[in-house]
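Page 37, top half.
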Amino acid sequence: MADLIPVSYKLLKGMNESLILNVIRHNKYVSRSEIAKITNLTPPTVTNIINKLLEDGLVKEDKLGESSGGRPPVILKINNEAFDIIVIIIGTDIMEEYLLDAELTIKESKVDNIKKEDAESIFKLLFDRIRYLKDISKKEIAGIGIVVRGPVKSSEGISVFSPNIGWRNVPIKDMIEKEFGIPTFVENDVRAMALGEFYNGIAKNVGNVVFLKVGHGIGSTIILDGKIYRGINDMAGEIGHTTIDVAGPKCSCGNYGCFEALASEKALVNNVVKRIKEGSYSLVSEYVNGDLENITTRFVYKAAEEGDEVALSELNKIAIYLGIGIANIVNIFSPELVLISGGIVRGRKFIEDVVLETIKKRSFEANYSSCSIAFSNPDYNTALMGISNIILDSIL
């Protein structure tokens, strides 16, 4: 590529160049004539811009498209050799590190266990891994994406509070950019996952979506007209802390009867443990040799597979509360899609029917009939795709 730094492309060139680059990126394989139709730019304008993008090495010509009788069109795609990006996903117990090319193909990946690491050690590991991936890349690093749990001020790149590692008001973006001189983008894990579904997954091209991550807690992202609704303080979407039952159990936020306290996987485990302590027999207790502190959702789902009454009844209870919470979402937002993700998807077969029945009973018919309820694919790394697209949307 010429002496053009990819991260500066949007600023150095113009809106039409950026528009065409992103049309090519999102459509994978597209011809010049298709680009003209999508962008409403004239064919000569498209041709001139494409020629410059080819010269700069940001796009390349690929196989010929299908002919409709005349000369077959030449297909264009993003040049995967143009640059690389780095993505780090900091989870509860592990940190995932990726080097991807411009087409978001993974070139290098690594996983580190951070379960027993303190905040300072995790910072050191984070910087070491960025340095390692930068050193092994043969290309310009166009951007770095960091995904963390907990609330994030995305525009400032600040981790407001990451519960698993104890970070509070950490200016991740500034720290990494000062160290490496590479544009850095920071996002909350649930928003990154939602964007991954929006760009490449079940929610692709769906303009109005409420994304729910139901795991140890309940997080959510609201997408309206194709854009994340962030609220005035970048904190919108705390559906997990809406009240379902004022007489319900105490939530981690300090209130009582929150959606999260009643319908999360943490609530599921708490309920199973409570039943066993009260004298109910369950295979779950056998799986952990009576040590109830070692009970996890994995054992609950395993017991449910074996027909365990306690596991099945507590899953049914979670399903009812989950349905009530989603019915509230359907009535408030009237979205096209509510997409359920997170660890609860592993128990889908035990809860889906009850969840859907409860939503139907408690939603306005007009809202329910126009809304789809779906479960995500647990094997798809939505957070990786989400933060990668945030980077590319910002630099191209």
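Page 37, bottom half:
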Amino acid sequence: MASPLDDKTRSIIKACVPALEAHGLAITTEMYRRLLANPDIRDLFNISHQKDGEQPRALALAVLAYARNIDNLGAMAGAVERIAEKHVGLNILPEHYPYVADALLGAIAHVLGDAATPEIMEAWGKAYWFLAEILIGREEQIYVAHAAAPGGWVGWRPFRVSRRVAESETVTSFELTPEDGRPVMRHVPGQYLSFRLDVPGYGSERRNYSISSAPGSQSYRISVRRIDNGVVSDWLHDSVHEGTVLQVSAPAGDFTLGNPVAAPIVFLSAGSGLTPFISMLGALDAGATRGVRYIHTTRTPATEAFGPYIRDLAARGMLRADLFYSRATPQAAQDATGVTTHAGRMTPTWLAREIDRTATYYICGPDGFMRDAIATLKAGGVPENQIRFEFFGSAADATLVG
């Protein structure tokens, strides 16, 4: 267990908040520059998040949140759990942490210059290792649980693509079956798989993809949207076929389906944000749950993934769906039993009229979409503990940190 931080250290960290507000991004940008100079460490990261500055921005927000909450670290519990789950998915180990410490402390000294006094550097060293020990301990618990679970494993396991299906003109599903023929760990609906990929011309890449299948013991399914100029999404769509072997780590993530009996459920998604909800709906369907609201925004009917599945669930009374087409006007024939189609994006005004304060809301999609939805739900009186969200990428939006 990590030793508590002393009063002096916490006081110094709090005093650094203005400096982090002014220079946090410069510090994390320099930190990643140092860290990624090591090829072995570089391979642990999604480099696309470096090119657009997303990961440095996200880390800057996280470090600032840590400093602001240094006297109340319970407020960071959700963020710590998400980080630990992502680390496990990427097979981060205790021996990786000293590299990060050296890069972070070196970046603080580099950016702050003479302002980085010995007392400040000592305080940040203590603060870093305090948090690192918490993460290492939690990650060890998750690794042990994965190893002990039926069909579970630790590290990278080879899976063969046993089937691929075009779900829309932009989304393709890949069914993954373990090469060793043994069972797989049953995932919790909403979790994701992490992949270690060797992309020709780019080398080693890491990606996380939500599992879109209902829990089972034989295989997993991921559903990937082709992104414009996406290094990995283009490769998956163009070059990964039935028989291709991919390296996969065990299911991870804390954005999971809670007790479906406790309250009504509303799923809010945009684009490929629907993928964890397809897994959740599969689990709910198996339990014959009713009273689910499914609200999704996509560009056109041609980009609508899993449309037949959603319409089937609606026809059977499993859910009520609202489908928004941001770049098309739906035809009347596209409405069906339990399904209403809309032209344009889902707006905060529309969502505000539809709020059910007793419901638990699950939200997944682009950061801006989630930010607007969360703000609308909170303004409409939905308690914060009934609003759950998952982000793809590094959460570089301050609303989504914590």
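Margin note: The first strand starts at residue 157 and ends at 166.
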